[in-house]
Write a structure and sequence with these properties.
By secondary structure, the chain is mainly alpha-helical. It is built from four helices and no strands. α1 crosses α2 and α1 runs antiparallel to α3. The two termini are 33 Å apart.
């Protein structure tokens, strides 16, 4: 629900903001947040978040096994495929 924006490419962030504003990307909360933003405001926000250092999150202890299972086997119900990264 709360994506980490720090360190994302400014062009990507700017495009997403524009898409929310135009309706090309649907999300009622974000549409409301960007409605009054100018192109300059969106570019400034994108530059700000792009300049931030990402922070590594920590998985909740009770979710580690589930995450590993989804990584290895995927989740057909939600359309997530298994990782294709081979182990050395």
């Amino acid at each position: 629900n709360f994506p980490k924006l720090a360190g994302q490419h400014a062009a990507y962030l700017y495009k997403q903001l524009k898409d929310y504003k135009s309706g090309d990307r649907q999300n009622a909360v974000m549409a409301g947040m960007v409605a009054a933003l100018s192109d300059e405001d969106m570019a400034d926000l994108a530059a700000y978040y792009a300049a931030q250092q990402p922070k590594i999150g920590i998985a909740a202890e009770d979710q580690i096994a589930l995450g590993e299972s989804i990584y290895r086997a995927g989740n057909a119900a939600s359309g997530v495929s298994a990782s294709s990264v081979s182990r050395l």
